[in-house]
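Chain A, query sequence.
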Amino acid sequence: MTEQLTALCDKCNKITDVIFKKDKHPNDIEETYFKCEHCYYRYTSFVTDKWVRKQQRKLKTMPRYEDNQSTLDDKQLAINERMARLKFNLVNYGRADLEI
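Chain A, predicted structure.
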């Protein structure tokens, strides 16, 4: 049995249960978010595009042994950087396009 994930809301300073939801955006962008159950403030957790989801699937199937750990780390870093750019653009500009 998994434990319920909780967070402290920055807006109302109350503890809220984290229930992840997904929204689809143009250009095959998916946003994973949750809302505070008290003040309904929306927290964007993850933003992915087709490239990110494909790389995540590839990374999941790659063998894990000591010799290729740096390759795995490099691939994960590239995924994280792209997701950070997508999230920044979505939160700040309302669109997750990387051309912004």
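Helices lie at 50-61, 69-93. The two ends are 42 Å apart (CA to CA).
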